[in-house]
Structure to design on (644 residues):
């Protein structure tokens, strides 16, 4: 029982972080129709950059975080302006492939700048574990969940009330109508990439504060894809609900399926979920089913 | 545009001919002579040529699937792995002859590809990309963990290919095998594009709804595309296993799948020459980076960062893919067409 509770809590909390990263994907997809397959590599890059700021440059934690956020915003702007802007109105195949090229480039860049394969961030959260009933959960998980939930809250308020947020939702709804209203669509694209990068950075820091910085962080980004597939590509709510489900499935699977199958089953469960969802309900739980016309 | 001015076709056979003019034939015979005598004078480049040949086969398969039929597959390295392991297991564990292993590698990889391609009937674009990424990870995970059969992380050593009593041990003898199969697969791909099936693929790529309305069965043709594309991947995998003599799960990473997509983009999507250009281009860059540039820089006085050697290649490839997509999305094949047109009209190129 304690075991089950333990798996459930860690699964749900890690799932929140996946949902956070997935939110960045949904944001870009909704506003500009670009599928960002470089998500995992971005998560890895930001984690290493945080390491560079906090450990290598020795900055205090708050200054370091501000530097990371600034870097994320800047990178988001660069990616949109110089890589995706020239490809506006190109077929989806090119858009997907260019983010793959970006993913490849970032992977090389990370190895280039930080050749060590493993590193640990300085301790960001208190060490003492929490006791919830019979389960023992380390505080990092809870903080990760709290920060993710707080960001969800902030983002939904932003989309509900802020002018930019409303403009972004409008762009997601109908690009041409928005353009006709005089809203600069390219600026919306650029903002959505900045948001996505910041979310990836926060997600990366949270994940690496839990498990250290390894190459497995790319896998974290890839798991965000299973979140968006399960939740539906164009649904914020879907991402928030599917994230914990994926986290839960992964942790319960690791706990109870490993003896039955092979080690490492944790890392494939999200992909198996993807395949099952594709067969059963390809547009996800909350995704909008597109009816196409010739 | 395809034929020089003044060349007219009087029969259907002439119209269909791949090698039409005297220049074509001269170039073809010249190329065949060069290829047949290559083992005599290419030296160390022969192993590079073999690897590029294997890559051409795989890229041709991906080009049929992605370039002609428009179904993006980011799991090509996974399907190659299926072929490599099928062939290795059949020949090593069951002692079957190499040709059986080769063909069954293609068939098994094709069937696995068909399974993972099934979502393509309901979804496309990004969804399919993710489904094939999932295929890549599931396949590599199974290979890594199913240690009784695949050897897992320790890998598996594979014997040299044997045709009848003839064992092809050296790079030069394998060059003929790989080269022959590469030429056959290019020929097959070229002709496939001109058949009913190939034209159905193109129709599906350009607008699948319109294609369905015209009476093309999407179910059938998409699965055929997945089968053929992954069949080629399987053949390439089998050849790779028997050429490298050793395979492990680490030989088939996701980045390779990305690189295959990059190759057909660089070469030119939906053209026969595209995969050839792309595979040669990437293969030569890879070889010169790892064998020439890095050792030269290392031996010079400049101190290199520790990650230089391993990080440089992905950065360069990523940059090449991005730049090609922005600057020349139609790839090298298009540049080749432009060159031919300019050459024919020279010096009056208006």
């Amino acid at each position: 029982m304690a075991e089950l509770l333990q798996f459930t809590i860690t699964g749900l909390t890690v799932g929140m972080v996946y949902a956070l990263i997935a939110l960045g994907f949904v944001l870009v997809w909704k506003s500009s129709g670009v599928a960002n397959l470089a998500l995992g590599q971005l998560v890895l890059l930001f984690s290493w950059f945080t390491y560079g700021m906090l450990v290598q440059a020795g900055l205090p934690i708050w200054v370091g975080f501000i530097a990371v956020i600034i870097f994320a915003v800047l990178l988001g702007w660069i990616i949109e302006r110089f890589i995706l802007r020239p490809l506006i109105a190109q077929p989806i195949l090119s858009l997907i492939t260019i983010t793959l090229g970006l993913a490849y480039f970032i992977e090389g860049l990370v190895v280039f700048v930080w050749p060590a394969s493993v590193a640990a961030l300085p301790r960001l959260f208190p060490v003492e574990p929490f006791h919830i009933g019979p389960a023992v959960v380390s505080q990092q998980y809870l903080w990760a969940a709290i920060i993710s939930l707080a960001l969800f809250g902030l983002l939904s308020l932003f989309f509900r009330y802020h002018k930019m947020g409303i403009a972004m939702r409008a762009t997601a709804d109908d690009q041409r109508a928005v353009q006709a209203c005089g809203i600069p669509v390219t600026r919306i694209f650029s903002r959505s990439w900045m948001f996505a990068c910041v979310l990836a950075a926060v997600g990366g820091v949270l994940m690496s504060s839990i498990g250290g910085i390894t190459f497995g962080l790319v896998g974290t980004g890839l798991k965000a894809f299973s979140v968006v597939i399960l939740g539906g590509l164009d649904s914020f709510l879907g991402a928030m609900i599917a994230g914990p489900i994926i986290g839960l499935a992964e942790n319960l699977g690791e706990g109870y399926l490993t003896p039955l199958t092979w080690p490492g089953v944790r890392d494939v469960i999200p992909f198996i979920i993807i395949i099952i969802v594709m067969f059963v309900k390809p547009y996800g739980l909350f995704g909008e089913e597109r009816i196409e016309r010739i | 545009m395809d034929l020089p001015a003044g060349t007219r076709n009087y029969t259907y056979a002439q119209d269909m001919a791949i090698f039409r003019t005297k220049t074509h034939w001269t170039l073809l015979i010249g190329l065949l002579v060069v290829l047949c005598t290559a083992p005599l004078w290419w030296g160390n480049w022969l192993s590079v040529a073999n690897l590029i040949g294997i890559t051409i086969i795989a890229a041709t398969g991906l080009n049929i699937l992605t370039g002609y039929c428009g179904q993006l597959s980011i799991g090509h390295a996974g399907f190659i792995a299926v072929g490599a392991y099928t062939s290795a297991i059949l020949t090593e564990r069951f002692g079957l002859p190499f040709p059986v292993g080769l063909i069954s590698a293609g068939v098994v990889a094709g069937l696995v590809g068909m399974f993972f391609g099934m979502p393509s009937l309901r979804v496309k674009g990004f969804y399919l990309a993710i489904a094939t990424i999932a295929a890549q990870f599931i396949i590599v995970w199974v290979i890594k963990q199913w240690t009784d059969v695949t050897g897992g992380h320790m890998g598996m050593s594979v014997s040299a290919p044997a045709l009848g009593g003839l064992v092809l041990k050296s790079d030069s003898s394998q060059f003929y095998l790989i080269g022959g199969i590469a030429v056959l697969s290019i020929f097959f791909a070229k002709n496939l594009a001109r058949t009913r099936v190939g034209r159905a693929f193109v129709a599906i790529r350009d607008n699948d709804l319109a294609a369905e309305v015209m009476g093309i069965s999407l179910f059938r043709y998409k699965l055929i595309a997945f089968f053929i594309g992954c069949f080629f991947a399987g053949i390439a995998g089998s050849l790779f296993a028997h050429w490298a003599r050793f395979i492990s799960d680490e030989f088939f990473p996701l980045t390779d799948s990305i690189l295959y997509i990059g190759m057909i983009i660089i070469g030119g999507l939906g053209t026969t020459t595209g995969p050839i250009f792309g595979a040669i281009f990437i293969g030569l860059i890879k070889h010169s980076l790892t064998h020439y540039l890095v050792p030269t820089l290392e031996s010079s006085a400049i101190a290199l960062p520790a990650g230089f050697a391993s990080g440089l290649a992905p950065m360069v490839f990523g940059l090449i893919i991005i730049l090609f997509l922005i600057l020349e999305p139609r790839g090298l094949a298009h540049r080749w067409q432009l060159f031919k047109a300019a050459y024919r009209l020279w010096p009056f190129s208006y």
